[in-house]
Amino acid sequence: MTYRIGELAQALDCSVDTLRFYEKQDLLKASGRSPNGYRFYNDNARRQLAFILRAKAVGFSLEEIRELLEIRIHPAANCCEDVKSIAQRKLELVNAKLQELEKIRRALDQIVDACVGGSLPATECSILEALELEALELETEEPEA
Amino acid sequence: MTYRIGELAQALDCSVDTLRFYEKQDLLKASGRSPNGYRFYNDNARRQLAFILRAKAVGFSLEEIRELLEIRIHPAANCCEDVKSIAQRKLELVNAKLQELEKIRRALDQIVDACVGGSLPATECSILEALELEALELETEEPEA
DNA sequence: GTAAACCTTGGAGTTTAATCTAAGGTCAAG
DNA sequence: CTTGACCTTAGATTAAACTCCAAGGTTTAC
Ligand SMILES: [Zn+2]
Ligand SMILES: [Zn+2]
Ligand SMILES: [Zn+2]
Ligand SMILES: [Zn+2]
Questions:
Q1: Where do the DSSP E strands lie in A13-136?
Q2: What are the CA-CA distances from residue A75 to residues B31, B54, B76 (Å)?
Q3: Which residues from A are below 8 Å from B49, CB to CB?
Q4: A135 CB near a chain B CB, below 8 Å?
Q5: What is the C-alpha to C-alpha distance for residues B46 and B2, in angstroms, rounded to an integer?
Q6: How far is CA B139 from CA B104, B108, B145, in A?
């Protein structure tokens, strides 16, 4: 498949301005130009854009995303020094984000549950209190997994 | 515990300017003022700030964080209409973020693994390719869980 | 052949989230 | 009783990430 800029923007729900901006920022270059000068994009570019948008949605800056995209294993070369340590640092960052999100998810879960059945004590009412409660439960209900 | 603005900022690794800015944005008010006019914060405020910083780190805007903080169950009142639907929408958002992050984590995992043992085919080299590969594996290795 | 709907560039403007500056008050140490 | 490290306010400035605009070229549709 190939897309013109507007088609790709529509397909992945962003603006054409954003695509031109990402090009300037060296995040996503067009796969080529048509004879008339229009940019075109292939499925590879589409996947890259999808990745950029996902990474952005979970709190990576464009600079960090650029770093993620630069992580490449080159089987012959000396990738294990540089690439692996960068990938590992990013992996730690991602794992930390996953843990924070898990906490927020469990707190929201509790709030939604409480709104249905009233299983939370009546005095607990905010997301902060749900987080506190959850922390207590993790401490007392699972003394040692 | 109570903290002056500088102490709280140092404890949670942000700037005093950020704390004053969050106050203006109605995200975090000081627990009170000392006779000399200085702000002070208690552990409750500290927890709220910790939540704000965590939520920010996983890609919530300050506006979204304000909405998260406003989610409150009031056991007597009509919370199940408004609160529950807001909490559910946020929960869906959080789950979506979790899925994106999981994908990125698995791709980074594969890259780190490949850098150690060379378990990835030598032609696979970028985070995008790791994502592709992972998608294929999920399709073929688990035809029906 | 001309209007509508695309696309091009360069550059200006906006929003979000801080971050900094200026002018000054508070307080403990020496 | 002054120096230094805090704190106060209001307002200006910055950086990141878009978003919009002007002036114009290209394609399809009637
Ligand atoms: Zn309810
Ligand atoms: Zn309440
Ligand atoms: Zn390697
Ligand atoms: Zn390669």
A1: 32-33, 39-42
A2: 57, 37, 63
A3: none
A4: no
A5: 9
A6: 17, 19, 11
What is the rounded CA–CA span in Å between residue B142 and residue B145?
6
DSSP run (H or E) holding B142: none
pTM of full prediction above 0.90: no
Whole-angstrom Cα distance, residue A27 to residue A69? Answer: 8
B39 touches strand D (CB under 7 A): yes
Class assignment of domain B1-78? mainly alpha
| A124 sits within 7 Å of strand C by its CB | no
Chain B residue at shortest CA distance from A61? B59
In chain A, where are the structural domains located? 1-78, 80-145
Find the closest chain B residue to A48 by CA distance.
B128
Nearest by CB to B79, which of A74, A115, A124?
A115
Cβ(A106)–Cβ(B88) under 8 Å?
no
- In chain A, the N- to C-terminal Cα span, in Å, equals 50
Query: Could you tell me the distance in Å between the CA of residue B80 and the C1' of nucleotide D16?
Result: 38
The pLDDT tens digits of the residues spanning A24-59 come to 999 999 999 999 999 999 999 999 999 999 999 999
pLDDT at B95 over 90: yes
Whether pLDDT at B145 is above 50: no
Per-residue exposure over A37-64, b if at least 16 CB sit within 10 Å of its own CB, e if not = eebbbeeebbebbebbbbbbebbbeeee
Average pLDDT of the residues in B69-88: 72
pLDDT, residue B22, reads 98
What is the percentage of chain A residues whose pLDDT exceeds 90? 57
